[in-house]
Amino acid sequence: MGDVMVDVHHVHKSFGPLEVLCGVDLQVRAGEVTVILGPSGSGKSTLLRTINHLEKVDRGWIGIDGELIGYRSHRGRLHELKEKEVRRQRTHVGFVFQNFNLFPHLTVLDNLVEAPVSALRRPRGEAQAAAHRLLERVGLSDKAGAYPRQLSGGQQQRVAIARALALEPKVLLFDEPTSALDPELVGEVLDVIKDLARAGTTMIIVTHEIGFAREVADTVVFMDGGTVVEQGPPAAVLDDPQHVRTRAFLSKVL
Ligand code: ADP
Ligand code: MG
């Protein structure tokens, strides 16, 4: 087993009076795939957003590859990082959204080139060469010059995955990557994610695709009401859940 890549430690997060994350602990090892399941409103998206520091935590902390996210520890106290530093940290965490979120005015190739050039100061030619390799990896070599609106949802999501990979992140987060797709397009996106899993990419994936979870997850995490109710290997959590809330959820989605 690899070292801990993502370390979520006692994380609390409220929106006004509503506590959405109520002390979440989660560890993800390098090279492993964690699938998060749970009913709507259980805090899955908020958890992913705190890992990327799109949301600040109220209590607890999050580490990526041994580095605190959003804070620097100095003489036993936490100091908030400047926005520039947060942006640098964010390049280590790839994020794939439900609705693709590609830049509509940029070609597929330029969608992949933009962040490495602007955030990592890569030479454009180098970023373009890397982008072509990534498009090949997701099976879209022939779409480099197309615009997002000219692609199917499945193709757009594969571009979004390639774009996230272009920053060579330490971990890739997926928030319901196939929920917005027509059923016949789900498979091509899951196949790309399966390839990444086989290649040892560290990933945290929120999804309702239970069969996929069974196939690719090293760990399945079931969340409800802002807490991790139960976690373990897919065979344990999916086939022999210990908690009544996990059983109730699975009986609805299986
Ligand atoms: P999930 O992804 O599991 O469906 P979310 O993390 O999106 O759950 O949301 C958990 C709860 O937090 C929900 O009740 C949601 O309405 C609330 N919530 C999420 N984001 C915000 C926000 N920015 N402001 C207020 N409430 C929010
Ligand atoms: Mg969500």
Characterize the structure shown:
This protein has 254 residues and is α/β, with parallel strands linked by helices. The protein has a domain at 102-168. Helix content is 37%, strand content 28%. It contains nine helices and twelve strands. A six-stranded mixed beta sheet has the order 8-9-10-3-11-12, with helices on both faces. The two termini are 30 Å apart. The mean pLDDT is 96.
Q: Outline of this structure?
A:
Helices cover 37% and strands 28% of the residues.
Radius of gyration: 18 Å
Query: Could you give a short account of the major beta sheet?
Result: 6 strands, mixed
Count of alpha and pi helical runs:
9
Shape: globular
Small-molecule binders here are: adenosine-5'-diphosphate, magnesium ion
Regions with pLDDT < 50 over 5+ consecutive residues? none
**Series of secondary-structure elements, N-terminal to C-terminal:** EEEHEEEEHEHHHEHEHEEHH
Bin the strand percentage.
25-35%
List keywords for this structure.
254 residues, binds adenosine-5'-diphosphate, single chain, binds magnesium ion, 12 strands
List the helices and strands and how they pair.
Blueprint: E1 4-15, E2 18-29, E3 33-37, H1 44-51, E4 59-64, E5 67-68, E6 71-74, E7 77-80, H2 83-90, E8 93-96, H3 108-120, H4 124-137, H5 153-165, E9 171-175, H6 183-198, E10 203-206, H7 210-216, E11 219-224, E12 227-232, H8 234-239, H9 244-253
Parallel strand pairs: 3-10, 3-11, 8-9, 9-10
Antiparallel strand pairs: 1-2, 1-4, 4-5, 6-7, 11-12
Helix pairs in contact: 3-4, 3-5, 4-5, 5-6
The structure holds adenosine-5'-diphosphate (ADP) and magnesium ion.
